[in-house]
Amino acid sequence: MTELDDSSGKTRGCHVYVADLNMPWHAHKVLSNKHNITALEWDLPGDKLVMADTAGNVQLWMFKDHILNEWVLIGSAYFPGEHILGAAWFHNGKKTGLVTEKKDSIHYSEKFNHLLFAPSVRQFGGRAAEGVLVVSTTGMVGAIMITKDLQNPTCYSTESLGNTRHRITAVDLCYGKNGHFLVAVSSGSICLPIRCFRVLVRKNDDKCTITSQALPSFFLQDGAPKDNSCTVVTHLKFVVREDADSLVIAANSESGGFVEVWELREKSQPVHKLFQPKTLEPFKTVVWQYQSQYRCQSPVTAIATTKLSIVTTLPPPSYVIIALADSSVHCLNRLDCLKEVAFSSLNTSWRPDEPSNKYFKNSVSIAHMDLSWLGCVLLACDTQGNMYLYKLLPDGTTGTSMSLSYACTLLEYCLVTGLDWLDILLCLRSSMIEALCERLDVSFNRQLQSTQQYHYIQFLSIKTSLYRMLITGQNKAADLSSLLMIHSVATAFKSLLRPSDLISHDKGPAESLAAVITDVITDVDKVLLHLDPKEFTVEPSTLQSLQQLIQWVADLALNLLARLPEQRMQMKTGGYELLKDHKALNTVRELLVIIRIWGLLRPSCLPVFLRSADNLDVLALLFCLLSKLVQPNGDTQQQVDDGLIGKSEIHRIHEDIMTTKLAIKHKDSLVLKENKLHEKNYTIQQSRLKRYEHLSLPWSTLSVFVVYWLVLCPLIWAICYKFAYWPSYWSFLFWTVAFLIWIVIMCGLIIFWRRFQVKQSLEINTISKYGSDKERRPRSVHQISSEDSEFLRTKKWNDSHESESKSDRENLRRDLPPLVIHKQISGENIEDTDGVVCVEENEKTRLSVASDYVQKSPLQDYLKLVTVSPSEDEVKSPKTPMSPRDLFFIDLIREAEKVERSLKTRTHFFPSETTENDSAETVKSITNGTDIEDVEHRKDVKDTEDENVKDKKDNKLRSKRESNECCLLPNQIMIPQLHQGNSITAIVSPILFYQNLPLQLEYGVEPEQLVFTPEMNPVEGCMHSGQIVDTIRHLYLGRQPLLVKQCTRCGGKAQVQNMTRTAAIRAWDQRWTRACRCGGIWRIHKASQ
């Protein structure tokens, strides 16, 4: 046999290849051996491989950095002169079964039980050891154990199966529940018995010992052949690898072959009366009992049985699959006396439109077969190196297809045990996937919170892979991938936060931030007032290494808000949508707050945006819009939603500004005079009404009293008194209930009167002071206070000194702290103060200059690459009184400087308390700042509540004006592409449902008929770079990177790590080292030259 790439025949030998079933055309060579490989087995987790040959060499291999096409040798052992026949890895002692009686239970803990199953070899503390057990043709049994020692990575020992060595031609091994192995061997002749042994491996210090004990043996049912034909036992196979009670034996003769099933059972044996004990209990022994037989016309060439039994019933349901020399495959039901369930042959035509002689392979027969762990697919290999993949119905199913309930149970089993669910995806129908996702989601949400948290990542991976099987489910799969990444980024960021004092704090920084986020706060800077700056201090070098993750969080928030209008206009479909998951959106808001704080420590770690204005605070805008989307205020929910998606309202902002300017400029116009006259008339009318307010409540109370007590109650009493058989206490009960009802009526009347008075007072205060000259009414109503006249008188004087004030403001701005400058340039130039709309002249100048610049310059020159916050050189002490927020920022920057100074002299994170002077001054400054912050915070909260009550009717206009920025995002900021629609070539994809099976694939050639390009909903204004993006670290890898890691399931690509990294980013990479976020295995992908 030559290598797959060799066409000249120069590499003859024995070669071992591995391939993922989702991309079988990419086969990777593990090693080349000059001796024939006779034993090849995966371990239970599926990341190690044992190979044994005819010369006695046993080699243990494993993935290098969990890469499918890179392998490293763990250790090896050499048994001279031994021909190894079989091998099995040590069991890790983990076994989970589905309780049949509780399969309809809600909780996973009741439905799935961890069964008692001991590890094959125990180490110190009861931990399971890793290693293999091998059996040779001479009856030798050997154990090779991995020691984790660099000098001696393995240790091994040998022992004889029986008292004497004897020749063995067929062998199989299975696991016992007490930690032992059960070994069945045959010498080949049907005249000799099938021998069984109990093998126990123990570790003593640095060595391992083997103990073998003989068990009852048995002869086949046919016994010695009567026609002198040569009948040879060729295969032994336990029905279930973890069940030692059933054994399948296959034997061949010149005329054909047969298969027998034997079971190990307890049987009562008769005892002679002379040897009977005094008790009447029968003597029981364990013997092998014949169960069933299946005869075939051709010799048996391969046999496969179930690896894992999911249910706990005895005997477990299982299949026995045999391959014959005539290239046929037969599936037999073990519980139904080996009744044939399905049949297939390599000689039959695969497609009805092609002749059968095209696929006639009389000289080809199947050499080996194996089932997946869940028993959904069968993989067969013939004598010419071709592989065949068959889809099977799992054990215990009825009908011609997998049912919805059983598919959900299998996915839940994979969720609990961590097994791969690829074979389940191959057996699903496209019409049942959406219903399966909903059922799986409902079942998961019923679990306990601790159970959901433990299995959350695995659950999202399974659900994402299900939606990826549908053409219409690509957007849902992208949202679920984003949700998984949000959860992972939040976990990584919050793990870097350290509480300043573990004794005095009941909650950590993450819990404190989550509690603050739940409040209705739309300003990200106000959130910082409730947080302790020391708890969010992180090393600047660590922050810089996390910049790509910070950038991804900002890009995700931009994409969510930018696609909100298009998603609201689309038809509502089932499934998951990230925009409707308020818990995930709150997590994004928490991340934005953390990024805001970290930007003060390291401005270079902030996300980078392509925006149209330098003074646009993108982080604050994103936090504000997400806050209004997640936490609407009562009745304004519909107003916020309409404002977030209403593109037709964009021009109203400019109309409101122009109306306000016109009202201020023409202060002596007829409009203002008429409004004053209306105000006077309305005030006189309200004063007249107030004269009778004190008489309204008594008159209403008297009217209700007369109607209730003098009319209604006597009428009801007269009607009820006519009925006979009333109890003696009826009159007392009647008038008591009437009195209680009267109290309720009076309470309701008083509450109604109070609300009426509040409404009247609000109507008096909301008087319009100016209107339109019969041309057009303003869109909002504003109250001009008594101080506005002074403002209008001094306006001309302010206009004359505008140029001088601008220069003074620029000089003052240079001396202010960076965040005060950020507050002034954040775009909040239109403010509502005491009900008066004040428009600054610099806003008018900025809008006019920006509009002229847009008309003259192209868009590429108009957009500039800037960051969110200022540089570190601009941080100076303020000359004006500082606000609580400024004090918070100053404390945060001081804490960061302390950390940087301490890192130069010390190795730990926070400054030491041994320096008494420095620590005393620090505590004093922090205490003073905290006291000032608390007082100002209380005052700010009180003023905010009063302002909300006073300006309740102005919230509608203000919310519309602010929420229109969501639709302006594509015009203000360049939206980066978050999810790429890169094509993938794999078996498990939506294209599989539209293919004519079976598919003919070729090694090294990606089939064009399986190329699938997902269609994602476009985002307005999205920037398509055309580059490959790292799905883990979110870096641009180029259009055609030469060397990357590629996932074998989703096709995502990641960077091959070969650089020095910080501890934070190293921990992030290790999170995804073992598998991709979809659960797939990584492989090294090299671009074709």
TrEMBL record:
Task: Give its localization.
Answer: Nucleus
**Gene Ontology cellular-component annotations:** mediator complex
Does the UniProt entry include the keyword Transmembrane?
A: yes
Question: Example GO biological process term?
Answer: positive regulation of DNA-templated transcription
Keyword Flavoprotein on entry: no
Give the lineage.
Eukaryota, Metazoa, Ecdysozoa, Arthropoda, Hexapoda
Question: What is its quaternary makeup?
Answer: Component of the Mediator complex.
Transmembrane residue ranges: 697-720, 732-753
Coarsely, its chief localization is nucleus
Basic and acidic residues composition bias: residue spans? 935-960
> Where does the Mediator complex subunit 16 C-terminal domain lie?
1010-1083
Region of interest (Disordered), ranges: 911-960
Q: What does this protein do?
A: Component of the Mediator complex, a coactivator involved in the regulated transcription of nearly all RNA polymerase II-dependent genes. Mediator functions as a bridge to convey information from gene-specific regulatory proteins to the basal RNA polymerase II transcription machinery. Mediator is recruited to promoters by direct interactions with regulatory proteins and serves as a scaffold for the assembly of a functional preinitiation complex with RNA polymerase II and the general transcription factors.
Question: In what residue span(s) does the Mediator complex subunit Med16 N-terminal domain sit?
Answer: 77-336
Q: What is this protein called?
A: Mediator of RNA polymerase II transcription subunit 16
InterPro entries xrefs: MED16_bridge, Mediator_Med16, Mediator_Med16_C, Mediator_Med16_N, WD40_repeat_dom_sf
List, alphabetically, the SUPFAM superfamilies matched. Answer: WD40 repeat-like
- This protein's species is Mycetomoellerius zeteki
What protein family does this chain belong to?
Belongs to the Mediator complex subunit 16 family.
Q: Which UniProt keywords apply?
A: Activator, Membrane, Nucleus, Repeat, Transcription, Transcription regulation, Transmembrane, Transmembrane helix, WD repeat
Q: Taxonomically, which superkingdom?
A: Eukaryota
Bias type Polar residues, positions: 920-930
Residues in domain Mediator of RNA polymerase II transcription subunit 16 central helical bridge? 410-598
